[in-house]
Amino acid sequence: MSVLGFELEWFDEVSGILQTLYLKFFLDDNTIEILKGTSTFLKRIFYPEVKLSDLFVGNSITVFNRLFLIKKFANKATTEYMNAREVRYLCRIGRDNLSQLGKLLIVAKNVGLVLGKVVTTSSSFYSSILAADQGDVVIELVGKLCTNRDALLKAIQVPSLSSVDAVMASAQEIEDALRSCGKASFRSQNCTLCLVKPHIMKSQTTGELLNAVTASGDFQIKAVFSIHMTLSMGEELFEVYRGLYHNYSAMLEHMCSTPVLAVLVTGTGSNADYEDIVSSFREFVGPGDPALAKVLRPESLRARFGESVVKNSVHCTDLPEDGEMECRYFFETLSSL
């Protein structure tokens, strides 16, 4: 087989119309073409940000600043090809053990899995494949070209992942289960937002970064939520930086290029009610320029994981008075969409 077909959904923010398009992925040279009906929407090109590993049902991709949701395989041949090579897991981590999330993502990467959707449950639920309590985190993991389809089930049988449940499931079963989770709800005070940027998600170093946050001993993860932001969502969040950030346009484009992971962070133990968690976490994240961070704060997140001013690993809340507002924007406003 030389060409795969995928049905896409695209919301045109200008016209306000939800459109159905079709993407062709050419296996011989990894090029793509997008059709609108029988007409060409995007002529065949090589677009390096779209890889075969990105093309699974439920995932979203960005091509020239347009966000496309992959709804389904477009034909029987593609369905058979992808199903023969794809494995999916749905995992659950208890709300009191979210420090294990980073470890799970590292293990998943090591067995060839990529991160799909992530939600924090708003209430207890039971589906045909998984049960979870309020505040638990449910994670979709997807693998391509997997020769050992139960590799994750074996890999999580270690004490450090004792609170992780995992089950293999179909795309439809996972979609139904995630819908049963409800939307993440905002329940914290004295919190700050950590937004894991697209380049970290694409390079699959999200697990190492989250491990660094919890291993510090000063911070704990209370909720997580994955979303592919549109340009309008990004503009609403980052509008205050427009006149302050000389790379604003590049930063905004990067933040909307692939899904990001929103992480609600609080203090630990006796510091759980620490009122200046925003400033404390911002100091832990480090200066905005990773090159400067490597000199001034070599143990900071941006020194360890940042690549450039735009790709500096994470966005974190800047001002103490904005911590609750930014968390509420993701874990209340965006999660309800």
Protein traits:
single chain; 337 residues; alpha+beta; PH-domain like; Alpha-Beta Plaits; 3 domains; six-stranded antiparallel beta sheet; four-stranded antiparallel beta sheet; 16 strands; globular; cytoplasm; cytoskeleton; NDPk7B; cell projection
Summary of the model, kept short:
With 337 residues, the chain is of the alpha+beta class. The protein contains 12 helices and 16 strands.
Q: Could you walk me through the main structural features you see in this protein, from its secondary elements to its overall organization?
A:
The protein is globular. A hairpin with a 2-residue loop joins strand 5 (60-63) and strand 6. The longest helix is centred in the N-terminal third of the chain and has 11 residues, at 100-110. The chain has 337 residues and is of the alpha+beta class. It is 30% helix and 31% strand. It starts with a strand and ends with a helix.
